[in-house]
Structure formats: structure tokens, C-alpha cells
Amino acid sequence: MNIKFCFKLGKSATETHAMLKEVYGEQALSRSRTFKWYGCLQDGRESVEDDTHTGKPISVCMPETIEKVRKLVTADWRRTIGMLASELNIDKEVVRQILTQDLGKRKVCSRFVPHCLSDDQKQVRMDTCGELIDNANPAFLDSIVTGDESWCYQHNPETKRQNTEWRSLSSPKQKKNLISKVKVMLIAFFDSERLIHHEFVPPGTTVTGQFYAKVLARLREYLSIIPSTVEFGRDPTKVMSNHFLSPLHFCA
User: Fold this and answer.
1) Strand bridging mode 144-153 / 240-243
2) What is the domain partition of the chain in residue ranges?
3) Residue 3 contacts by C-beta under 8 Å, 6 or more apart in sequence?
4) Range 1-43 has CATH code 1.10.287.110
5) FRET label pair with 229: which of 4, 12, 110, 150, CA 20 to 30 Å apart?
6) In sequence order, what DSSP letters do the residues of 122-133 get, joined into one string?
7) Using CB atoms within 10 A of its CB, is residue 227 exposed (0-12), middle (13-18) or buried (19+)?
8) Is the C-alpha dihedral spanning 153, 208, 217, 139 positive or negative?
9) Model-wide pTM > 0.90
10) What pLDDT, on a 0 to 100 scale, did the predictor assign at position 248?
11) Which of 140-154, 163-177, 199-213 has the least mean pLDDT?
12) pLDDT tens, residue by residue, 203-220
């Protein structure tokens, strides 16, 4: 009401705000709010009361909507709340309420994968591996070649002792040995005794199935000439390749 009175008297927004500060002190309307009301009055607004609101929106948790959600979930149990909300064109919170409250659903994982083994589980694995080793052919482990990949820097900095040099007071300042910003992929293969083969992926090369087939061909050729092949009687055509982190039924 005070702002409208000053507006009718022809006062500016700055003058009105100064007068409000003088009368009400810290409880006066802020400068931004004062200028906002001045803009509304200049646009022709006469009422100084708050605008009426439509209130809380009508809930869409109608029986028809609940039934639609039920049918979609029954057709595909893996549908997410976002997918259901997009298909039915309703809010995500409404979908969550229908699923949890109206339908009594809860999200569960269909497959449990133990990441942290208990002490008993570790002991069972050790016992099983021990039995396999005791009952298996002595040359069984020698026929397994494991492979893995790892990213590494093109060059690593030397140790502090290796990086020391004899210099005089007039010698130029030694450059700091930094870690390379470029990484390359290392592919390594090893058996029960040692590392038997490794190679670096050329920069810019994509590791595809065709590329890896050539790597395995070079590995097979190398297995036929290394001393351990002759010593253990390993047939390079019958070597079992167990790639690191691959499930056992994928090994070949």
C-alpha cells in the first residue's frame, strides 16, 4: 500500500525505497522487490493483494492410471520409473507412488553377485582349487596361458638417485622429469612360470576382434619356439587361453 501511495505521488522507485528504509529500517521491503512492484504498477496493476493460486494439482492416481502402470510393469519388469512416466505422460513421483503404495512393488535385483567374499567363501575356493591341483594332470597348469591388458605411460620418470648428475655452479638448471601425458595399452601373456609374451598397441589403433586375432596368432607362433614349450612338452595348438576376468565358460 505504501509503494502504491508513493507511486501515485509521482515518486521514483529509488525515492520510495529510501523512504521505506527510513520508516521501517531493516524490516523494509528489499530494493529488488520494491522495483518489481513499481514495474507491476507501471504496467497498470491496481491490486496490491497476492494473486490467487490454483492450489495443489489434482492427483492422477486414478484407477485407470494405476491399471495402465500395472500392465506396463507386467509386460516388462525392467521398466524404470522414467520410462513409465514418459509413456504415460505423468510425473515421475506419481509413478513412484503408484508402484510403491498402490501396487505394493519394490525394486529388487534379479541376480546377486557377491563382490566381497566372506572368510568361509574364501576357504571353500581355496579347498576347491587345491583339490583340482592335486587331482589334475601335472602338466595341466603348464597348458594354461593367461592374458591381460593394462594402460601405462610411454615413459616413467627415473628415480631420484638415477636422475642425479654432476654439475657445476655455472651449469644450466636441470629440467624436471615429468610423467608422460601419453598412455599406451600393454597386452601381456603369462603362464604358471613367467611372462612369455607382451606387446604394445600402436597409438591410434582400436582393439577389435580382428586385431586381437593377429595378437593371438603371434602368441601361438612365439609359443612354438620358447624353451618352456619344449621343456614342458606344450603343444602350441592345444594351449588353453584363460583371459583375465573372463568367465570360465568363455575360456578357449
Assistant:
1) parallel
2) 1-43, 63-102, 139-155+178-228+238-251
3) 16, 20, 29, 34, 37, 38, 41, 48
4) no
5) 150
6) HHHHHHHHHHHH
7) exposed
8) positive
9) no
10) 42
11) 163-177
12) 888 888 888 889 888 888
